[in-house]
Write a structure and sequence with these properties.
GO terms for molecular function: ATP binding; ATP hydrolysis activity; nitrate transmembrane transporter activity. Helix 2 crosses helix 3 (about 115-125), helix 3 (about 115-125) packs across helix 4 and helix 6 crosses helix 8. It is built from ten helices and ten strands. The longest helix has 18 residues, at about 170-190. The protein has helices at about 50-55, 95-105, 115-125, 140-155, 170-190, 200-205, 235-240, 240-260, 265-275, 280-285; strands at about 5-15, 25-35, 40, 65-70, 70-75, 80-85, 160-165, 190-195, 210-215, 220-225. Bound molecules: adenosine-5'-triphosphate (ATP) and magnesium ion.
Length: about 290
């Protein structure tokens, strides 16, 4: 029997036009994702993680290959692929409630006024934000804004939830709370999730599989690690779990040994000395 995947990235590559000619950011990215899977994308800064996510979101068009979601080719953004960005992109003139309501109304799935209200309230409840429904983004904290961003995405009932470093700008405690909320929501709703992160613990704690990307240009998938830890997962218990620590180690090894991205001190010095000192520039101007 063949299992049908919900989301398929096949030979995805992209060239960005630049003044110096095309820049190949990604090449031959192949990934099959099952319904309900939680996938993390991890890799060094600039390797192409957001580009992969944006191609799945339909915000960028692949130069080669393509993305198929439930037998349909992805060519443009759509409500079945909701995106949560790192810098919470709420509309500042709308309250938390109205921000979520707007997304619900845009999906136009024939809800009555009463049903819309209940659905917005339900989604704010999921992220524990009911108490601040009538506050403007400027009146709530970064973590709370991020919660509303997640509620807004969930309210669209996406088949796939795409999150680009959703907790990157948050302090460690807020981040831990939100990770727990996301795990609960994922357990309850069973959506497919693709999340970009730089945080190795976050990747191991949340994911079914961690997709590790090589450095660019022409970045691709280096390794995929399946995380076979029982759910629900508890961060405190896992801290002493040998299997958890093994997974952590595997990701760290990939990032810091196999895809090392550190300039040697000598190379760095050489570059520094190539930059004219401010005093020299000043004397040039004079
Ligand atoms: N529109 C564009 N035009 C030209 N080059 C681009 C464009 N978008 C991205 N790139 C290049 O593609 C590469 C991948 O960028 P991308 O933003 O996907 O990286 P990333 O892995 O998300 O990095 P970070 O972790 O810093 O967010 C980078 O070298 C970037 O400079
Ligand atoms: Mg990025």
């Amino acid at each position: 029997m063949t299992t049908k995947h919900q989301l398929e990235l096949t030979q995805v590559g992209i060239d960005f036009p630049t003044p110096k000619g095309p820049f190949t950011a990604l090449r031959d990215v192949n990934l099959r994702i099952n319904k309900g899977e939680f996938i993390s994308l991890i890799g060094h800064s600039g390797c192409g993680k957001s580009t992969v996510l944006n191609i799945v979101a339909g915000l960028h068009q692949a130069t080669t290959g393509g993305v198929i979601l439930d037998n349909q080719e992805v060519n443009e953004p759509g409500p079945e692929r909701a995106v949560v960005f790192q810098n919470h992109s709420l509309l500042p003139w709308l309250t938390a409630y109205k921000n979520v309501e707007l997304a619900v109304k845009q999906t136009r799935n024939g809800r009555t006024k009463k049903e819309i209200k209940e659905w917005v309230e339900h989604n704010l409840e999921l992220v524990h934000m009911s108490h601040a429904a009538d506050k403007l983004p400027s009146e709530i904290s970064g973590g709370m804004k991020q919660r509303v961003g997640i509620a807004r995405a969930l309210a669209m009932e996406p088949k796939v939830l795409l999150m680009d470093e959703p907790f990157g700008a948050l302090d460690a405690l807020t981040r831990a709370h939100l990770q727990d909320s996301v795990m609960e929501i994922h357990a309850e709703l069973g959506n497919t999730v693709i999340m970009i992160t730089h945080d190795v613990d976050e990747a191991v704690l949340l994911s079914d599989r961690i997709v590790m990307m090589t450095n660019g240009p022409a970045a691709t998938i280096g390794e995929i690690l399946s995380i076979e830890l029982e759910r629900p997962r508890n961060r405190i218990e896992l801290a002493d779990n040998a299997q958890y620590n093994h997974y952590r180690h595997e990701v760290l090894k990939f990032l810091y040994e196999k895809q090392r991205k550190v300039e040697s001190v000598a190379a760095h010095r050489q570059k520094q000395s190539a930059v004219p000192k401010l005093a020299e520039l000043k004397s040039d101007i004079a």
